[in-house]
Amino acid sequence: MWSDVLGHLNYWLAALLLLIGLHGMLLRNNLIKKLMAMNVLQVAVIMFFISLAVKRGATAPIEVHGVTAVAAYINPLPHALMLTAIVVGVSTTGVALALLVRIYRHYGTLEESELLERMAE
Amino acid sequence: MRQLAWLTCLLALLILFYVGDDLPAVGDPTSPASTHVSPYYIEHSHHETGAVNFVTAVLADYRGYDTLGETTVIFTAGLACLLILGVQIGRSISGGRE
Amino acid sequence: MKTPFGSEVLDAACRLLVPFIMLFAIYVLVHGHDSPGGGFQAGTILAAVVILIRMVHGEEASWGLHRTAALGLACGGLVIYAGIGFLALLFNGNYLDYGVLPLPLEAAEVRAMGTLGIETGVTMGVTGVMVLIFDALTTGEPKEEEDVE
């Protein structure tokens, strides 16, 4: 049973990070903290995907002269997909920060409870 | 509302830890992620594309269309930032010719 | 940033570091084939150069990437990428099929040159967009135009 847990350790840690991010997005009142928790959630998903690509005893996916075995290099496909995911995360953070700057200029606060009060007026 | 949020987090925790057992072990070279398309990329990248870095070959050559979509995404995000914040670029149209 | 950090130590360090960082960005771009790197990484390193200059010298920096040039760079990068794909259509291939471009090289090297072209386009696009996002987030409120009576 312990070998089962240790064999999947990357997945448990990525799930823990995802839950930290989810908890922050749902249960923190400040909008900037919610945004940072969204970033933590994106990093957790990326870490999970990259840990699917590892092979035991293999090296980085850059071809060494003379070694052509498939089992000698890790899987390059999740790395390429996660480059796209990182760029999408950066884009989302940029647009969210622009929205937060507008909200602050208009309402003067970034706390969710005060914001709901001022919007209801 | 906060109770509902805590309940959602607890439910997500239980689902993730229940499903995590069925995933392949980390480092297994016969996992399904490593046995369908990626052996083709590892074996034929250097010969077909001239790239020694497999990740660049996959990203820019075999899957170049996805990278075009990704560049469009970051370009659109930049435009959205400019439009949300009302940034002036260049001479204003209402300035008139001088 | 409206108020520059502007001390002499920062100014000297900035002038010393900027050429090396730009050279490293171009190195990462061109060696994307043989070592870890590529277009996106090089674009963010170049954007870091512009942001460093902007932070040390303030908004009215006399050298650096100004807004119109950054927007032009972003649009130009995307046009280069889509343009190379369209160029492959003109030579009877599929869209983004680099093998049909008429360069006097071997088959694998033609594809490598096509990849270098689109990575350059990606670098220009990412640099322009990062500088634009930084610029948009750090300018102050736009001044209200007064009504002319």
Number of helices of chain A: 5
Mean pLDDT of chain A: 90
Q: How many discrete structural domains of chain C? A: 1
Net shape of chain C: elongated
- Overall mean pLDDT score of chain C? 87
Helical proportion of chain C, percent range: 55-70%
Instruction: Write the CATH fold name of chain A.
Output: Helix Hairpins
Shape of chain A: elongated
Strand content of chain A: under 5%
Polypeptide structure, described:
The complex is a heterotrimer of chains A (121), B (98) and C (149). By secondary structure, chain A is mostly helical. Chain A has helices at residues 2-7, 9-27, 31-51, 77-107, 112-120. Chain A has one domain (2-120): Orthogonal Bundle (Helix Hairpins). Helix content of chain A is 71%, strand content 0%. In chain A, α3 packs antiparallel against α4 (77-107). Chain A is elongated and about 70 Å long. Chain B has helices at 2-19, 38-49, 54-62, 64-85. The N and C termini of chain B lie far apart (60 Å). Chain C contains four helices and no strands. Chain C has helices at 8-30, 39-57, 67-90, 107-138. In chain C, α1 (8-30) runs antiparallel to α2, α2 (39-57) runs parallel beside α4 and α3 runs antiparallel to α4. The longest helix of chain C is centred in the C-terminal third of the chain and has 32 residues, at 107-138. Chain C is elongated. Chains A and B meet through α2 and α4 of A and α1, α2, α3 and α4 of B.
Q: Care to give the gist of this entry?
A:
Chain B has 98 residues and is mainly α. Helix content of chain B is 62%, strand content 0%. The N and C termini of chain B lie far apart (60 Å).
Topology record:
The complex is a heterotrimer of chains A (121), B (98) and C (149).
Chain A lengths: L1 H6 L1 H19 L3 H21 L25 H31 L4 H9 L1
Helix pairs in contact in A: 2-3, 3-4
Chain B lengths: L1 H18 L18 H12 L4 H9 L1 H22 L13
Chain C lengths: L7 H23 L8 H19 L9 H24 L16 H32 L11
Helix pairs in contact in C: 1-2, 2-4, 3-4
Index terms:
heterotrimer; A: mainly alpha; elongated; C: mainly alpha; 0% strand
